[in-house]
Amino acid sequence: MKNIGFLSFGHWSDSPHSATRSASDVLHQSIELAEAVEDLGGDGAYYRVHHFAQQLASPFPLLAAVGARTSRIEIGTGVIDMRYENPLYMAEDAGAADLISDGRLQLGISRGSPEQVIDGYRYFGYAPSEGQSDADLARQHTQVLLEVLKGQGFAEPNPRPMFPNPPGRLRLEPHSPGLRDRIWWGAGTRATAEWTAEQGMNLMSSTLLTEDTGVPFHELQAEQIQRFRDAWKAAGHEREPRVSVSRSIFALVDDRDRAYFGGSGGDDQVGFLEGGRARFGRTYAAEPDQLVEQLREDTAVAAADTLLLTVPNQLGVEYNAHVVESILKHVAPELGWR
């Protein structure tokens, strides 16, 4: 069995071929797609966060709305760039969204990815200290977030408050018990996956790794997952960790699928990202029986408990629901995921 959800980047453009012409379109359709996928029996609705771009950027209003309009599926991010975040304010927003959804929030965070602008986090008022990198800044914000999500008091109360205080130091409110165990780190390397385990966060791995050893992407990612689990065990954490991977997978079951994605399948791609070699995973696009055989060989998908299907959101809610339904109906049962 495997949790299967969708991951949307939330693009919009004024192209006549786009079903999402504005931010309003994307936000409303993001909620509608979550409702449709829940009705189809899917397990999760996840959203990417990008600043300074015509894409989803403010996750917590959206997550709260999705939580209020659904009742069963997990809701999450993949991922929030922690370089931009005030971790205390973020903990309050996340706590509220989690309570609205009755504990279904799965919050994916990370250092982030290449940006639309140079050092965009500086416009948000954050900058690395002398001798720090931007990755250090993201991890620093993350450590604060993880600490305050424990729900322990840390702030000295006013002796003459406007409203009565409980005894002792005060914590952030609203606090959502259990949310600390549902934080995921988007790791782009094997070493970062090990660090993720040491911090007690779940592992989120996408279709990009910012390193390359010459082996196929799925093998490198499977090694990353194993290193994460080994480090988790060595750290002595009591709970079982979770692991998600994302994939672009399209079952060609009708003429629309063949027109959109009939020639999209292929091999891994190797390139350079931020000065280093990176390996990008392949797109899967084939008839359902072929997809089943191809995915049987994907060792990273087999190792993960959660699969996030990246969806072409600009093609509209109805078509993206069809993309997810095709996997749930024609592929997942044959692989034992359902």
UniProtKB/TrEMBL annotation:
Signal peptide: none annotated. GO terms for cellular component: cytosol. Keywords: Monooxygenase, Oxidoreductase. GO terms for molecular function: monooxygenase activity; oxidoreductase activity, acting on paired donors, with incorporation or reduction of molecular oxygen. Residues 9-257 form the Luciferase-like domain. InterPro entries: Bact_Lucif_Oxidored (IPR050766), Luciferase-like_dom (IPR011251), Luciferase-like_sf (IPR036661). Pfam families: Bac_luciferase. PANTHER family: BLL6902 PROTEIN (PTHR30137:SF15), LUCIFERASE-LIKE MONOOXYGENASE (PTHR30137). This is Alkane 1-monooxygenase. It comes from Aeromicrobium erythreum.
